[in-house]
Specification:
The chain is of the alpha/beta class. It folds into two domains: 60 residues, Double Stranded RNA Binding Domain (2-Layer Sandwich); 83 residues, Arc Repressor Mutant, subunit A. The protein is built from five helices and six strands. Strands 3-2-1-4 form a four-stranded mixed sheet, with helices on one face. Strands 5-6 form a two-stranded parallel sheet. A hairpin with a 2-residue loop joins β2 and β3. The longest helix is centred in the last third of the chain and has 15 residues.
């Protein structure tokens, strides 16, 4: 497994790849061990460039190599449908998936294990009252990402 580093306006991003497929993407202050050879991936770097330049890169442009349960696939598909500048609550996503009591918590647990931040934009998921809760990259970074997107920087 190789890894690459990308310097974003919100701090260093580290990602792991196997071949040309993305395995994991996170902010460098989230501890991750087991680095392989440092080898930046041009496709992932370009996606991140586009994102932080205010463009709206397609999720389809990134080949992923992540093992997901059927539930994670359903949740991540809903999250990836949230447009930049918009948010949905954990409860709204649970309702879209036909879940009942406890659904919001299950969505939260699922998103807490998001292996590829930004690519699966879990920062767009908020509490039922709109509060910023639960982001592996940190609440401050979640707030900055949402402000960045809400200003229309990703149109």
């Amino acid at each position: 497994m190789d890894y690459g580093e990308y310097q974003s306006p919100l701090g260093k991003i580290v990602y792991y790849t196997e071949g040309n497929k993305l395995v994991k993407l996170f902010f460098s202050d989230q501890l991750m061990k087991g680095c392989g050879v440092k080898k930046n991936n041009k496709q992932i770097d370009q996606w991140l460039d586009y994102y932080f330049q205010g463009r709206q890169p397609s999720f389809a442009d990134i080949a992923l190599n992540i093992n997901l349960t059927a539930f994670q696939k359903r949740v991540f598909k809903q999250v990836m449908a949230i447009k930049p500048g918009e948010t949905k609550s954990y409860g709204e996503i649970a309702k879209q998936l036909g879940m009942k009591t406890g659904g919001a918590r299950a969505i939260g647990r699922c998103l807490a294990n998001n292996p590829v931040l930004l690519i699966i934009p879990c920062h767009r998921v908020v509490g039922s009252d709109g509060s910023l809760v639960g982001y592996a990259g940190g609440i401050d970074r979640k707030k900055k990402l949402l402000i960045f997107e809400q200003r229309g920087n990703n149109d």
